[in-house]
């Protein structure tokens, strides 16, 4: 089969995977046997594919610009999606005099908008409104403190983004921001105007003190890590305009259509997923690197870490059986910087770590020297892929690179909202293909809940409200005693 697949003007080049035609054939047969396209159809038709929580995962509806209905539980969800778009657009047109927008949220309520806003800003710092966006996720007050030092309380809006509206970090940060606003003489009526809730739990947002007209809902059929396409992506619209946000949705929608309509052997998300399966089976890989040769995509690996490892860091299938190796460790960072940290290990380490290189055809700044910079950037990207694949034979084994190290290359024509949407949707659908092949529920995260549960008695103990250290093991109890001593 062709080693080059295109979709939505993106190109996927798998040539350095060195997969034979016979191996491709087996991989596509495996995808068929594991019901990848049945799973895809179940997702797009709104079935409750998140079995443990009894929910659909219909994030493609959030970017469905086709005018066609999309159904959950017999109901077309498009009217509610469009109603939120309309309200978001109205809000974007009213932002006169606002200098700062503080975006509070964590995990799926942070990475997507943080990545997209940073990427668009990096390629064009003059694009959009002169509003400063500040993303704050960590409950470590240091992140919030540096933000509050920059923001102007009288002309700030605060977006509190949380699907559940119960997440400890976000709620703590929101309370501290409210205290800061009050400290700066923001009146109760100004405060009401200033706070905006983005959530699938509007009751909790209202109970927290957000006025109903400032609550932008999304729904329990949207997984947190797939939620950037909902009102969670509001910062994109606020900073860069609603039309740009719509472009972002349009790129993802185009990728959805490709995923739904392209036959298996020309299907980019599936092909990308199968290269990973091949690497697991042939090279027993346990790690995978994502290296965008674009400073603007420096947050992509983190976004992808949540998408991949929260969806598939699991060892029991939906049927309760233990399974083949599932998600590898996903890591990465922007090239060419990454060449000067962990690439040595990719070339000569004892384990094979496949790489997804992502490169952009067009230069990404307007400096007069941008073209020369871009040539150096792309030359490095192509050279690394070549070195990994072919290696080198030197006089001493110590100096030799073994080669045979697989990589993909994904080309984007340029970096804008549309192609960014297409790229993120490509990786989302790749994840869905992998989940189907591994037999996992891609949409829950029971492991994350344990840590959250255990933090509660510890926090109480640190406050002095749990003197008998109930619910805390001996080692942790000793640590708390040390801290309190
Ligand atoms: O949006 P929230 O309800 O505040 O949740 C934020 C994050 O919390 C946890 O880390 C979950 O595992 C993530 O999937 C979620 O994105």
* SSE topology string: EEHHEEHEHEHEHHEHEHHHEHEHEHEHHH
Strand order of the largest sheet: 1-2-13-12-10-11
Task: Give the cofactors and ligands.
Answer: 6-O-phosphono-alpha-D-glucopyranose
CATH architecture of the largest domain: 3-Layer(aba) Sandwich
As for the CATH topology of the largest domain, it is: Rossmann fold
- Spans of 5+ residues with little confidence (pLDDT < 50)? none
What overall geometry do the principal axes of the alpha carbons give?
globular
Number of domains as seen in the coordinates? 3
User: In angstroms, what is the radius of gyration?
Assistant: 23 Å
What is the CATH H-level superfamily of the largest domain?
A: Glucose-6-phosphate isomerase like protein, domain 1
EC number: 5.3.1.9
Keywords: Cytoplasm, Gluconeogenesis, Glycolysis, Isomerase
Active site: 310, 340, 452
Family: Belongs to the GPI family.
Relevant terms:
single chain, 485 residues, alpha/beta, Rossmann fold, 3 domains, six-stranded mixed beta sheet, five-stranded parallel beta sheet, 17 helices, 13 strands, globular, binds 6-O-phosphono-alpha-D-glucopyranose, G6P_Isomerase, glycolysis, carbohydrate derivative binding, Glucose-6-phosphate isomerase
